[in-house]
Design a protein that fits this description.
The complex is a heterodimer of chains A (339) and B (348). With 339 residues, chain A is mainly alpha-helical. Chain A has a single domain, classed as Orthogonal Bundle (ABC transporter involved in vitamin B12 uptake, BtuC). Chain A is 71% helix and 2% strand. Chain A is built from 13 helices and four strands. Chain B has eleven helices and 14 strands. In chain B, the strands form three sheets. Chain B has a six-stranded parallel beta sheet with strand order 2-1-3-4-5-13, with helices on both faces. In chain B, 47% of the residues are buried. The chains are: A mainly alpha (339), B alpha/beta (348). Chains A and B meet through α2, α10 and α12 of A and β9, α7 and α8 of B.
Chain lengths: 339, 348
């Protein structure tokens, strides 16, 4: 991983028991592991994949990675506080299932597109933000471990989504709403623009705001942070709410892209993709160290491995194994850096 | 009593012995003792146990509705229905719940062929006849006409063959095909791939076809889209830059074909004109796509099991097990530009 956007609030621990990689790999990994991995992937594709260096290919790749990055930003913040959010996939399904109920509603005020569409975007995101707050509430006030607290909505969330859409895959036809997933101002997909804006805000927040410092302090050493006057509980509530908001946005993009509300498959395994992106990017799963740009790199690397294997027609089973191996290698390289 | 009586070794021995006796007992009941299939007496109204697998896609919902319409609405019988939410363990528990209410017959799709097979034996031993629909169980554990009446379902291999036949004819034997496979390892994905590829190679279920092979029909890439619209779209997007020569797509289900149409359009290709698509299922969205000229054809994989399950059950009551084949093959229709209009919004 490169040091871009990297912020640290925890002293490096001695690591005599670590697996030790060859020195050259360690040296490279210590500074620019993720960037080197990505460059190698790009180089490989540039040579061996037809039409790889075309604008349309770049657009396809950015398009596919956008939702993972958007959810990954929220996940990175949660992980930075020492938590984890398993509910993001289910929250995506909830947002995607609620939106068509609003813009397809016949109820007077909602029947007008200039009311229905904005509300169909704002209300689902607010709802998932609120559900994220609920996650945070379980974590802070009931002191439930994050993995269990967010498991509640991981399991129950799809039930809510199913109840919203009567348990069926609901097709819709609404070009204004679908713009969120299919629109391309200046040739750039809308979700890629949203991803870029959110990345900038989050990276700036982590680097330059008190809130960013609070997040790292909370994850680095919670008792010390509390003694130092960091509002630990409020910080945690905020990151889970942010994660919920972003998951809601990603869910709307997903629904808009397939022109359907799919309570079962929308956002399936998204929590794993987002966690993997953060881990590969160099965010410590123990909390206290986070890098937004790292999460972007992590997501892009995983997506590029997938793209490379699919475009070379490697079988599905092999693809999964290679992605798993890539994650292990990336995390192993990251760990060397902590020494 | 000595303290060694409950030593670990003795407990293990006891466990192994009882397991052995249990397995032997099962073997005896299942294989040696030629017990009859549970009979179904003639009466006016029956109670039917229907342990549905899930309701997460239009196909499953259409299947459920077809059962409800046939047995509840049309006949006025009782249908005890459960929904396993795509969870095998829940389906096993659901079946127990239904059995406790003593239905006359169980008609259900087993979610997994291995896991549900012992359950079919259990229902058999409880004296309740079973008809399996849409998915079968492992025949090395439970056999049709012996432990359950029969299996009613589509011939997935033939669906693949019919898609290949239409595509070969439409493309005049020359095409660069991308295949979007279903969930890796699932029966429909394996069979639909086999039927399609074998037909293009000139065979069908081991015998040469009259048409012979089609060496000009080349499958240039074959990737899993997990039967999902979004996955189908992403896989197609990823394949398109490297395979610009593609001019035909075979998708194992309609949802992936619709995803592929979106990917093709986003890449500036014209589905239905410079890329011809064929898929399987015959859902409403696919019929619409055929009418719109974007999808070439769709082989039906009928979810309408109600009427055929009823017919099979009545045949068992009136004529006995000898009148019923081991596999009641569902007759699937074929939708293309010639007939899509009349099925618009009539499917699922």
């Amino acid at each position: 991983m490169a040091n871009v956007g990297q912020t640290e609030a925890r002293p490096a621990r001695p690591a005599a028991d670590r697996v030790v990689l060859p020195r050259w790999l360690r040296a490279a990994g210590q500074t620019h592991g993720a960037v080197i991995a990505l460059l190698l992937l790009v180089l490989f594709n540039a040579i061996f994949t037809t039409n790889y260096l075309a604008w349309s290919t770049l657009r396809v790749n950015l398009d596919q990675v956008a939702t993972i990055v958007i959810v990954g930003i929220g996940m990175t913040l949660v992980i930075a506080t020492g938590g984890i959010d398993l509910s993001v996939g289910a929250l995506m399904a909830i947002a995607g299932s609620l939106a068509p109920l609003i813009f397809d509603s016949d109820w007077g005020p909602l029947d007008r597109p200039w009311v229905g569409i904005p509300l169909a975007i704002v209300l689902p995101i607010l709802l998932t933000g609120f559900l994220g707050l609920f996650n945070g509430f379980l974590v802070t006030y009931f002191r439930i471990q994050p993995i269990i607290a967010t498991l509640v909505l991981y399991l129950g969330g799809r039930g809510i989504a199913k109840a919203l859409s009567d348990g069926i895959l609901l097709d819709f036809n609404n070009p204004s709403f679908e713009y969120l997933g299919k629109g391309r101002p200046l040739g750039i997909p809308v979700q890629v623009i949203l991803m870029a804006i959110l990345l900038l805000i989050a990276a700036w927040m982590m680097r330059s705001t008190v809130f960013g410092r609070y997040i790292l302090a909370t994850g680095g050493n919670e008792p010390a942070a509390r003694l130092a006057g960091v509002p630990v509980s409020r910080v945690k509530l905020a990151v889970y709410a942010i994660s919920g908001l972003l998951a809601g946005l990603a869910g709307l993009i997903w629904a808009a892209r397939i022109s359907a509300a799919d309570p079962y498959r929308a956002g399936e395994f998204m929590e794993l993709d987002a966690i993997a992106a953060a881990a590969v990017g160099g965010t410590a799963l123990t909390g206290g160290r986070a890098t937004i740009i790292g999460t972007l790199l992590g997501a892009v690397i995983i997506q590029q491995v997938r793209f490379t294997l699919i475009s070379h027609n490697v079988s599905d089973g092999t693809t999964r194994i290679v992605i798993a191996a890539a994650i292990i290698l990336a995390v192993l390289i990251q760990r060397q850096r902590e020494q | 009593m000595s303290e060694r009586r409950w030593s670990r070794r003795n407990v293990l021995k006891l466990g192994a012995t009882s397991a052995g006796v249990f397995v032997a007992g099962r073997y005896y009941v299942g294989r040696v003792h030629a017990k009859q299939l549970p009979p179904l007496e003639k009466k006016d109204k029956y109670t039917i146990g229907f342990a549905q697998v899930g309701s997460n896609n239009p196909w499953r919902i259409a299947e459920t509705n077809s059962m409800k319409e046939q047995f509840e609405t049309k006949l006025g019988w009782t249908l005890i229905m459960t929904d396993a939410n795509e969870d095998t363990a829940k389906q096993l528990a659901d079946i127990d719940t239904i059995l406790a209410q003593r239905p006359d017959i169980m008609i259900f799709p087993p979610r997994e062929s291995q896991a549900l097979a012992p359950k079919v034996l259990e229902i058999y031993e409880a004296g309740i006849p079973v008809i399996l629909i849409d998915r079968d169980v492992d025949h090395s554990i439970a056999r049709p006409k012996e432990h359950y009446i029969t299996f009613i379902g589509s011939d997935f291999v033939d669906q693949g063959r019919r898609a290949a036949e239409w595509l070969a004819k439409t493309m005049n034997g020359e095409a660069n095909i991308i295949q979007l496979e279903g969930t890796t390892g699932s029966d429909p994905a394996i069979d639909r791939k086999q039927g399609f590829e074998d037909y293009l190679a000139g065979t069908f279920k081991g015998t040469p076809t009259a048409e012979g092979g089609f060496p000009g029909m080349k499958i240039i890439a074959s990737q899993s889209g997990d039967f999902q619209r979004e996955k189908g779209r992403q896989v197609m997007e990823s394949l398109l830059p490297a395979h610009p020569e593609v001019n035909a797509v075979y998708a194992h289900n309609d949802e992936m074909a619709i995803g592929a149409i979106e990917a093709l359009e986003a890449a500036g290709r014209k589905p239905g004109e410079d890329v011809i698509l064929v898929s399987i299922d015959g859902e409403n969205a696919a019929i619409q796509a055929i009418v719109d000229g974007k999808l070439g054809a769709s082989v039906e994989s009928s979810p309408f099991f109600g009427p055929i399950a009823y017919e099979t059950m009545m045949k068992y009551i009136e004529e006995g097990i000898d009148a019923i084949p081991e596999w009641v093959v569902v007759e699937d229709r074929f939708f293309d530009a010639s007939n899509a209009e009349e099925f618009l919004d009539k499917q699922f």
